[in-house]
Design goal:
single chain; about 325 residues; TIM Barrel; ten-stranded parallel beta sheet
């Protein structure tokens, strides 16, 4: 019987040195990958990825996810070539369409996100295949460029490309052109059914099947032997999302009544005090609807729900003690 696949997700909650230790600990406990976030203007993904790659030997190291707007396509290819030099065949390029208002605030207009992503992946893949590339699209214009390796491996690089997709059109594109998809967190497992349909539609366009596309999924995991402590940690994050991204929460099955009640307490941006006040309005079942939270048995059961709904590997985002979470999932998530 195949071993359960499990991965670790890191954002900026831990000092980098601790992140390195957590990556090494996850590797020792049988995790297959570490995914490094790059979302807010806080921590880029590439520096931590290099650190994790340099301190591990078998762990895959993935960007979870960078965006396709801020790095020139030549630099993007050279960056992932360099990471692959550091850890051959262990690097994954997770890439997403980014989000507003952050993009517009740094001067980027995210127009035609599907075409922009298609062009980025087309050119990036050809460059990592060590081809000489000329491409004139709407977003990328390159003329006879190639990765100019003089010292080192000149062979094509095995760097799988995964799209971080939430909307169904981007999901279809992932099914058509990507090696995998990084499914989002804070969604109900039932969301995955729609996502699988979209991936399959895209895959069919390329003469592939759903099985040809890897489907790891970010899962918020708040686990503690003290169940209330675990639920309260997730409740806080859930409350922030209920305030900031009600469309996402409504799509996951949260009632309009609860959203309205929370918006009477939260302003934008919400203060710490308001979040603390609104938290008490969010019941346990809503917290557990879109996160793996509670006792070890409860979090494993929730992860199995996502797997049963099409995900291939949980990418666990620890809210509590990360080592405890790694220990609990060291033997997988079977019942």
């Amino acid at each position: 019987m195949a071993k359960d696949r499990t991965a670790l997700y890191l954002q900026d909650a831990h000092p980098l040195q601790e992140g390195i230790e957590l990556a090494r600990y996850a590797e020792a406990q049988g995790f297959e990958a570490v995914w490094q976030a790059e979302s807010r203007l806080v921590r880029d993904a590439i520096v931590p990825m290099a650190a994790f790659a340099a301190h591990t030997t078998t762990l895959k190291v993935a960007s979870g996810v960078i965006n396709n707007w801020t790095r020139n396509i030549g630099l993007l290819a050279a960056t992932f070539l360099t990471l692959d030099d550091l850890a051959p065949d262990r690097i994954i390029c997770g890439i997403g369409a980014w989000w507003d208002p952050l993009a517009s605030k740094v001067g980027i207009e995210r127009r035609k996100p599907l075409l922009a992503m298609r062009e980025t992946i087309t050119v990036l893949r050809r460059l990592l295949n060590m081809e000489n590339v000329t491409f004139h699209g709407e977003f990328h214009h390159v003329d006879g460029i190639q990765l100019d390796v003089v010292h080192g491996r000149t062979t094509p690089r095995n760097v799988p490309i995964y799209i971080g997709a939430t909307g169904m059109k981007m999901m279809e594109l992932a099914g058509e052109i990507a090696d995998g998809v990084c499914l989002n967190y804070l969604v109900h497992p039932k969301y995955n059914a729609e996502a699988m349909d979209a991936l399959e539609r895209g895959a069919k366009r390329a003469g592939r099947s759903l099985d040809d596309i890897d489907r790891p999924q970010l899962v918020i995991c708040s686990v503690d032997h003290d169940r209330k402590k675990a639920l309260d940690a997730a409740r806080k994050m859930m409350t922030q999302y209920l305030g900031q991204q009600p469309h996402l929460m409504k799509a996951s099955g949260v009632s309009q009544e609860l959203l309205d009640e929370i918006h009477q307490v939260l302003t934008w941006p919400a203060t710490e005090e308001e979040i603390e006040k609104a938290m008490h309005l969010v019941p346990d079942d809503v917290v557990q609807m879109c996160t793996a939270s509670g006792s070890p048995a409860e979090v494993k059961a929730k992860v199995r729900e996502y797997i049963d709904h099409g995900a291939t590997c949980p990418i666990l985002y620890p809210l509590g003690d990360p080592r405890l979470m790694i220990d609990i999932f060291a033997d997988g998530y079977g019942a």
